[in-house]
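User: Can you write out an input/output pair for a complex, sequences first and structure second?

Assistant: Here is one pair. Inputs:
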Amino acid sequence: MDIMQIVVTIGGSALIGATLWFFFGKRGDTGGQGGGELYTCPMHPWITSSDPTADCSLCGMKLVRQGSGTGR
Ligand SMILES: [Zn+2]
């Protein structure tokens, strides 16, 4: 059993996980800051805007407020 291989494998996975968490987890955290409500497309969650009247640039749907979800 090669301990270095295990360490590198776990380290790599942790790095990828941390990167994903940084991008996706951080977005949830910013909701706590005042003033910046974020609106997102229900079909395309990566489309976000701070403008409540904005439409999704992909499908044209009206954006809904992020975090006010009708279920997770
Ligand atoms: Zn959309």
